[in-house]
Amino acid sequence: QVQLVESGGGLVQAGGSLRLSCAASGRTFNMAWFRQAPGKEREFVAGISVSGGSTHYADSMKGRFFISRDNAKNSIYLQMNSLKPEDTAVYYCAARNWNIVTGPNYDYWGQGTQVTVSS
């Protein structure tokens, strides 16, 4: 059974940085990060192909967030810089057998990690 375990969330001041990690069990997948703020729908943040050669970002995250992966560790990462209070959300790792999509049609999800950005 595939399991995705996120880590690295926490409390940070505006302008700061955090690095999230997601460790996957089993084989490698196309993977992505989503986030969900209170009262809002879950939204796509960034995705990365199995090889790591293709990445996709939501427009609002381009230039601030960077997704990467280490297939030797079967893990992906999200480096978040210049954080803003509106980045406060639960961040989820997701895995998919097919191409990266920005909708929530992923096969596996992690439990989420809270990121809180104070002003």
Plain-language structure description:
- The chain has strands at residues 4-7, 10-13, 18-24, 30-36, 43-48, 55-57, 65-70, 75-80, 89-96, 108-109, 113-118.
- With 119 residues, it is mainly beta.
- It starts with a strand and ends with a strand.
- β7 (65-70) and β8 (75-80) form a beta hairpin.
- The strands form two sheets. Strands 2, 4, 5, 6, 9, 10 and 11 form a seven-stranded mixed β-sheet that branches.
List the keywords.
four-stranded antiparallel β-sheet; 50% strand; 0% helix; seven-stranded mixed β-sheet; mainly beta; 119 residues
The string of secondary-structure elements, in order, is EEEEEEEEEEE
Derived from helix and strand composition plus strand pairing, the structural class reads mainly beta
Span between termini: 40 Å
Largest sheet: 7 strands, mixed
Strand content: over 45%
Number of strands: 11
Helix % is under 10%
Low-confidence parts, pLDDT < 50 over ≥5 residues? none
